[in-house]
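Reposting from the mailing list since nobody answered there.

I have sequence plus structure tokens for a pair of proteins and want to know whether others read the tokens the same way I do. The first protein:
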Amino acid sequence: MTTESLWNAPPTTAEADVLAGIAAESMLTRTLAWSAINSGSRNLDGLAAMADVLQPLFGQFGPVARVVPSPAEAVDSSGTCRPLAHGDNLYLVVRPDAPVRVLLTGHMDTVFPADHPFQSSRRVDANTVNGPGVADMKGGIAVMLAALEAVGHVTPNLGFDVVINADEEVSSLGSAALLRAAAVRCHLGLTYEPALPDGTLAGARGGSGNFSAVVRGRAAHAGREPELGRNAIVAAADLIVRLAALGRAGCTVNPAKIDGGGPNNIVPDLAIVRFNVRPATLADQAYAAAAIAGAVAAVAAAHDVSVSLDGGFARPPKPLDATQARAFDLVRGCGAALGLPIGWRATGGVCDGNNLAATGLAVVDTMGVRGGAIHSADEFVLIDSFVERARLSALVLLRVAAHGFARDGVA
């Protein structure tokens, strides 16, 4: 029997019995309750409250560790690197010696801070709920949990790791090491970002890098002796123009914010340029790194200022290569077994799936609910997708437990 026929065969009686036990009510109830907890990436109290709720639910499978985030820094408005606080991450390991291991990941943080006006959920129609994080990704966590509740105790030869991190929306700087360590010990990865409303999954993903360029000039009196000054704002403006010009097919550069300046009668000696870079491939990433370094050096020389660059490519590109195609074939086959067409398309968005794939792990990273308008006050989830997506995950886990999934594609 071919691998494809293993994945897309109709559910067995035993599989059908497991899938039949998955119902929407608990997933929707959990999602609405979790949506009411503000867990913006910088709201440490809200993240702790969310972790308090999730820890015992995942604890039904085994001890859930609360993992302190790795140290991280960010440049503040004074141009100084300061410690960057992140919430604790949750980590569960079940049956560590099992012959096949699956890593399931999700994030408890959202993009909505505690002072954002979007704080509550509402029913839009019979099949749609609007609310903060209902799709991205508290609904996804509910799907993951329901799938594990259905199969976690009936697959003794399947081991699984679960990582629920607290900083995905801000590039996972504090959880990157935890994700990497979990990825290298597993054979397959499932991440619960939302699918598109029509069920399409994300295929190839570009990468992302966030940078801060600190420009330091020299202050002087703007009227008496301006020639003694070195205008950091002017240099920063030049840098912004040069950065924007670096964009090309396969690589976009977005100057997003400038800090600095002061009174009109002083030549400004400090400016900070913050920008994002989106390379489609590793070659594009290498091009961008070299081009940015060249622009920084050129501005420093042209304006007689110093420019220091902070940041990096926290999300490497994730091509749809042979490794990733194997995981998509598995999910597509299980979807076909359930009468669920599975398609995918490339996207410029990034997530933890980028980082997991960079370790060599085969990962499908849009296993969550169907929904849309994420990162906006119009965010919504489609209620009928809860059961649909939980059954898809459950069948994937059942079939991997039964037939295996070699990390390198070799049986």
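The second protein, same order (residues first, tokens after):
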Amino acid sequence: MTLKTEPRKTPSLLLKNCKPIGGIYTGNEQSDLRIRDGKIAEVGSGLAPAPDELVHDAGGHFVSPGWMDMHVHFREPGQEHKETIHTGCRSAAFGGFTEVACMPNTTPPIHTRDVVEYIRNVASGEPVAVHPIGCVTKERKGRSLAEMADMKKGGAVAFSDDGDPVYDPAVMRTALEYSSMLDRPVINHEEDLALSRPGHMHEGSISTKLGLEGTPSIAEEVMIARDLLLAELTGGHIHVAHISTRNAVQMVREAKAKGIRVTTEVCPHHFDLTHEEIEKRGFDTNVKMHPPLRTQDDVDAMIEGLRDGTIDAICTDHAPHSIEEKEVEFIYAPNGIIGLETAWSISVMRLLEPGHLTLPQLLEKFIRAPREILRLPVPALEVGAEANLTLFSTDETWTYTEAVIRSKSRNSPYIGQTMRGRATGIYHRGIWVLNEL
């Protein structure tokens, strides 16, 4: 039976010739996996299709518990010309993600319970679960705390003013105290504004050569140092967003050794690309982001941090912008790129293939770590569990073209690049999505 490529309710599905990986399954043996009424019903060899089942031949691809991206920007409400919850979920599914956590820099921001619930309601029918992250401060203005407890009751999984830091240390101290009582992390955009702005790229030899004002590494590191001290004082859980410098990784490493409650994440572009891309690509605004692309030494430090466990999770910081916003002079372009659709391939090519991480270690960064940070249940690959699954390859070669982009925006530095490894489908909430190129 042929499967359609659009998401469809599929209570019963038989995945033939897949390699389960996760739980008791090592990914070394090829099996069949049967889903009945949205739950994993059977795993074994030579399973015969039932009359009411859709059947998909996985062709030897892996199947794991569904992946999660804990840091995306879906732009709804208020900026739907860039991305909507629906198009964001479509992009996430193509990237292999069954769950995401969306940042609150929308219009209005996610600073009250009603906005949290609005996002959850809009996303309720999607195959990708969307978990809102509420603001730390009202309207993201950094002055007074938002209604954190009420937002948690509405479904907020963390608190952040991402896009901007929580700049006032007294406000951050109180936020960490409250978040500790609520058992939710505070995710801070680590940037000392007095040191960083109006930087347009990493401050270094390339920015000097190009005549662009740069953002120094110290702007990130100073704010991280402050937050680590406040987390130590309050016992709160600080999560360092999109880490990007060697010294920042070392500070987190030392803080963890001291027992400070800190976790962190890294984006694929920060363990793949360097600030040299801005010169190589002739001021292409699709390599303008914040934190900026930094040096090769920083890239190496991101990989080291992933390898030794200092960096807990891989996220995308998926940041859609319209063509009109990005097709301007470099200094006027907004920061950010879309990343949901290429995260797995970049991770395979930069982490798995060179041997920096094994496949189970890499999947840990996509499956367990982000959910544990956000206090969310980790899906299980076992009979009787709700089917929350990602089907993927580590060796399939494909080209990332505009034609395959599911996001509403096109601001990616990877368009036209040959990739290896791809998410070929997801199953979640009783919905099957087959990702065809």
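Reply #1 (J.P.):
I read it the same way you do. The chain has two domains: 8-63+382-434, 71-373.
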